[in-house]
């Protein structure tokens, strides 16, 4: 019988991609519906903190906040204050 070791963090992650780029560390996705009549309900992604400001998720978050005219909080984007 062989032993299989499973990383408990990786075993609980979901596969999420942003523009075809994999996003690591996602533990939960909620609010995702294939068809919505309203856009008021947010899509919620729960993921581990990654301090790299150049990660695909942090870049996407900065671009999204900049597009709606909000200044991204550096605490949540992995920058050291």
Give the SSE map.
Blueprint: H1 8-11, E1 16-18, E2 21-23, E3 26-30, E4 44-47, H2 56-67
Antiparallel strand pairs: 1-2, 3-4
Mean pLDDT figure: 72
- Main sheet specs: 2 strands, antiparallel
Task: Indicate the radius of gyration in whole angstroms.
Answer: 16 Å
What is the ordering of alpha helices and beta strands?
HEEEEH
Considering DSSP H and I runs of 4 or more, what fraction of the residues is helical? 10-25%
What would your notes on this structure say?
With 81 residues, the chain is α+β, with helices and mostly antiparallel strands. The chain contains two helices and four strands. It has helices at residues 8-11, 56-67, and strands at residues 16-18, 21-23, 26-30, 44-47. It starts with 7 loop residues before the first helix and ends in a 14-residue tail after the last helix.
Structural key phrases:
single chain, alpha+beta, two-stranded antiparallel ribbon, two-stranded antiparallel sheet, 2 helices, 4 strands
Summarize, please:
The protein has 81 residues and is of the alpha+beta class.
């Amino acid at each position: 019988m062989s032993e299989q070791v499973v990383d408990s963090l990786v075993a609980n992650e979901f596969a999420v991609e942003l523009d075809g780029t994999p996003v690591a560390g996602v533990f939960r996705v909620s609010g995702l519906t294939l068809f919505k009549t309203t856009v008021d309900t947010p899509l919620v992604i729960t993921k581990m903190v990654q301090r790299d400001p150049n990660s695909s998720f942090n870049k996407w978050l900065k671009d999204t906040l900049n597009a709606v005219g909000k200044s991204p909080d550096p605490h949540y984007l992995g920058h050291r204050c």
